[in-house]
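Session log. Operator J.P. requested a structure for one protein chain; no other inputs attached. Running the standard single-chain path with token output.
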Amino acid sequence: MSDNYKQQPEPWKIITTEPGPELPLVTVRFDTIRNPRTGKEIRAVVLDSPDWVNVVALTPERRLVVVRQYRFGISDVTTEVPGGLIDPGESHGDAAVRELREETGYTTTKWTYLGASEPNPAVYNNLLHHWLAEDVEATHPLELDDGEDIIVDIMSLDEVREAVQSGAIRHSLVLAALARVMDLSSG
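Structure written below.
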């Protein structure tokens, strides 16, 4: 590893903060910030959002529970692991249990926290908490929000790997979760 790895750029100073519109899922904020290298000020957009969770859910046979749903941003259906927003006052662990049950009907008592990632730190200020749920079983009916229309499916880990390699699974936050549990390479 190079010596540059240990070097960090200076933090940018926030000069002013202005509230922007409150939208579903996010509140927009405008920060005027100063580049410490040039001294120039720029106006940055920051999206305030609650933290999220996603769940890599494996059946006793080591098959992955996935959800297929329409995503407005890309106007297409994606294959994902279950997940969603953490409700106010809710722990990320409780949110993982809830999202798995609501979106898939699956439950378990075997949970492992896999850590957090920053979904898009260029504009978002939240974290995505990744969870592994093992030995999941279908125990409940789906409890979908008005903005959800989900098909639940089960994939073998070989099918998951193939779907990642072919681009059928390409949601970056799903890939981040899967990579914490399995080898996604083709070999």
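Operator note: The radius of gyration is 19 Å.
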